[in-house]
Amino acid sequence: MRQPGAGSARLATVTGGRELSWDGCVNVRDLGGLGRVKPRAVVRMEAPARLSEAGWAAAWAYGVRTVVDLRNPGEREPDHAPRPAGITTARTPLDPVGTPFYERWTKIDSLGSPLHYPAMLAEHPELVISAVRTIANAPPGCVVFHCVGGKDRTGLLALVLLTLAGAAPDEIIADYLLTYDRMKQRHDELGFRDQLTVVTELLAAGNTTIEASLSSTITSLTMPGFLLGHGLSTTELAALQARLTVG
Predict the structure, then answer these.
(1) How far is 222 from 232, CA to CA, in rounded Å?
(2) If both were cysteines, with which of 68, 104, 229, 245 could 36 make a disulfide (CB 3.0 to 4.6 Å apart)?
(3) In the chain, which ranges are E strands?
(4) Among residues 210, 208, 205, 225, which one has the least CA distance to residue 177?
(5) Is the dihedral of CA 215, 201, 45, 120 positive or negative?
(6) Is the CB of residue 128 less than 8 Å from the CB of residue 156?
(7) Over the stretch 16-69, which tens digit does the pLDDT of each residue have?
(8) Reported pTM
């Protein structure tokens, strides 16, 4: 398991200036500053259902014009406050429900760790491409993407975008780990066991770690070949890079 001191130092190097305070949500951060990602291009977060009116106003003021929902239909819940009329919501589920992959990995890690990422990218790249395409084709403005807790589906999409943008593995890993800290309050409220401990133990049983699992996925992901090889057009790639990156 990570040593608390080492983890805190790593997190501190990655979070400066990226964490956002939107009333009602605890796990919201801009990917700008990682690799070549520019600020206010893409933001990752937990499901925004708890955002208050002030929280949505803060998102709007930040430039958010598109929200990409990676959840399955049965996971969606009503918003506590109405979304600004100018925000578009795009629904692109990232879990391949009803497939052999889904049945297999639900038993292995409940799709709640980075252990399933390589299999997901290999067996269902079309779902990842669909989410990436939605971001590439979104109207001008900042794009927010989320699942439920903003960790695993959100983490996979963030990994893909950050790898394309040239972020270092350590940056991507540290960003992924932040969600455990940010969502701890929510998990405590629900009576869940500490999720970092749960996932660390799960991966240890397979003789690996969160860091090693993520690093293996990142280093094996060839960009932009993965995107182009699975259906993203060169025009869409150019639009994605223009939205996402500096220079």
Answers:
(1) 14
(2) 245
(3) 28-30, 42-45, 64-69, 88-91, 142-146
(4) 210
(5) positive
(6) yes
(7) 579 999 999 999 999 999 999 999 999 999 999 999 999 999 999 999 999 999
(8) 0.92
